[in-house]
Amino acid sequence: MPSETLDRFLNENLQELKDQGLYNEIDPVEGANGPEITINGQKLINLSSNNYLGLATDERLKEVAQQAVDSHGVGAGAVRTINGTLDLHVKLEEKIAEFKGTESAIAYQSGFNCNMAAISAVMDKNDAILSDSLNHASIIDGCRLSKAKIIPYGHNDMEDLRQKAKEATESGQYNKVMVITDGVFSMDGDVAKLPEIVEIAEEFDLITYVDDAHGSGVLGKGAGTVKHFGLQDKIDFQMGTLSKAIGVVGGYVAGKQELVDWLKVRSRPFLFSTSLSPADVTASTKAIDILMESTELYDKMWENGNYLKEGLKGLGFNIGESETPITPCVIGDEKTTQQFSKRLNEEGVYAKAIVFPTVPRGTGRVRNMPTAAHTKEMLDNAIKIYEKVGKEMGVI
Ligand SMILES: Cc1ncc(COP(=O)(O)O)c(C=O)c1O
């Protein structure tokens, strides 16, 4: 017999979320996640994906993925440490290390589980982690799992970080202290101050961990935020995903050989969860090859990003502090944000409302991500729709 306690819990809490405008309706996409998508039979300009370079639907990736299915099957068949390490995984990891400028790399099934895996493999209850207050949920959960003391510092606030690093190290309470940050903050598009972070880390002997889920493919000619600042030798963990600019699925850490050796024996999803499929691995390797060969997609993404940004800013939208093509339109109130996104949708633009808990309460926004695959015509149409809806709702 189903639990009445569970029923009560679910009904009360779901209703509360709906009343507060915080319940997220999921709209299945009918077909591929390209620059235009179809939802409920309606064609929409898609400004909500993380498919920064348009690689999720790239013919070259599709071709090699199909070949990998033919040669290696659809599944890896085991966890990495039994016999789920295929030659394709080794090739991918070598490619990631080359791309990131590190000695070695290790791949995981997702970016989320990569953070869960890697942080907790190195940090424990006798350690402390200094964590930017806008870090991604997977970083927060990875830190929690490690049982280390979590010490949040103000977003990109280097004075606060220095002060807290000093207190943590001088307290003598912790064996190891790590500083962890997103490279590019996904909901705001601003960039971590890595040169200052490295300086503070060197002063206080901190372990450095950069989650570059949104920086890879987007900064440093594609190689990421660490490369953008020329700090490849200074960051211990260059974490990234294969699911955003790379267009496929998976996560990784690039770093020193000993770090990767340790993660291979101590990070639990590597040991206890079946490895990435042959098609995913092969498509990801191909994507990195493409990025290393040419900046064509990268340049196009930046051109489109700047174009949309100027257009929305020119209309009077608050696009925050973005330094990358990620372009938020901050609306504020959650219900107005949801309504704004709904109206955009009705007019032909898919730009999802992002509200608490993904961003702090009262900072609801519509997050726009133009990709390399958008045409100028699509972006012009989107800007016109923003103008219409913005004026209608008194947002601009
Ligand atoms: C900063 C950051 N890290 C990690 C992840 C998780 O990556 P994945 O989607 O590959 O699991 C995300 C995804 O949104 C992210 O934004």
Automatic annotation (TrEMBL):
Residues 43-384 form the Aminotransferase class I/classII large domain. Its EC number is 2.3.1.29. It holds the Pfam family Aminotran_1_2. GO terms for molecular function: glycine C-acetyltransferase activity. SUPFAM superfamilies: PLP-dependent transferases. Its cofactor is pyridoxal 5'-phosphate. CDD domains: KBL_like (cd06454). InterPro entries: Aminotrans_II_pyridoxalP_BS, Aminotransferase_I/II_large, AON_synthase_class-II, AONS_Archaea/Firmicutes, PyrdxlP-dep_Trfase, PyrdxlP-dep_Trfase_major, PyrdxlP-dep_Trfase_small. The keyword Acyltransferase applies. Keywords: Acyltransferase, Pyridoxal phosphate, Transferase. Homodimer. PANTHER family: CLASS II AMINOTRANSFERASE/8-AMINO-7-OXONONANOATE SYNTHASE (PTHR13693), LD36009P (PTHR13693:SF3). Belongs to the class-II pyridoxal-phosphate-dependent aminotransferase family. This is Glycine C-acetyltransferase.
